[in-house]
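ok so i was messing around last nite and threw this chain in just to see what happens. nothing serious, just curious
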Amino acid sequence: MFIVKVLKNRNFIFILAFILGLSIGNYIGWVRHLTLPALAIVMTVSMTQIPLRSFLPLKSLMKPVFLTILLNYFVFAAVMLTMAWFIIPEKELWIGFVIIAFAPPGVAIPPFTSILGGDVKFSLIGIIGAYIAAIIIIPLSGIILVGQSFIQPLRLIIVFAELIVVPFLLSQLFIKLKIDKYILKFRGPVVNWGLFIVILSAIGLNRSVFFNEPETLGKISIICLVTIIGLGLLYEFITKRLKIDRRLSSCIILLGTIKNGGFAVATSLALFGGRSSLPGAISSVFLIIFLLYLSFRARKKSYG
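result:
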């Protein structure tokens, strides 16, 4: 049936979320309360295809963890903060850029790795390691670059438990009970509509950014464009030239560019006020645009 087919089309779903967020975002603020549960469900379904034995031997964990920390924290932060230092003189916005630069990887990485045909196990191990490292990296970077203790590690531990630990334990329970094969039949729609809620919330909550302060918006947008889309395309170019396997290449592109924008926005609002949340909000928009682009590319290739 045509309608059912359209409702299963991930590109239609993501574009619909983008359009609704911009058009009626002011009226659907309650959606933000569904974001964490939606992400938790998406992560659970994504992890269900990865049995615990696939994490052995333990030495195989070193490569994805090291690569994720290198790309998602150090390379990303170096590019973003260097540009922000020269372009953005305002202290509140600088703080916002520090927070997004050292925010942990986005939990949408594993499901999008699956969409792009990448190595889900590699990306999952990478972000687990990065979240653990973030408990040290985020407070330390704040002290050095902002000059004060700007985040409580407990907040990160709670997010880690809600979006990584619990979904992983549930996924292994489903595998143990041998009901994973039934869950995986609905993996595509569950992941797509779960991410629909995340995209809708991110755009809806930050839609006012598009209609106020065009000069500030332009400067922040340039930094986000280069750091997210520019870096992503650069990784793609480099991995092609080095003839790196496409499954690993997809992981590198996502792990090196996708941040937990919701975490960055929430942290900025809670600790420094609305102004400092602008970089996180706008970066979330560019992340969504980049993910939409990758999703379209993946669909086009699947029809070859």
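not much to say yet. Residues 109 and 254 are 6 Å apart (CA to CA).
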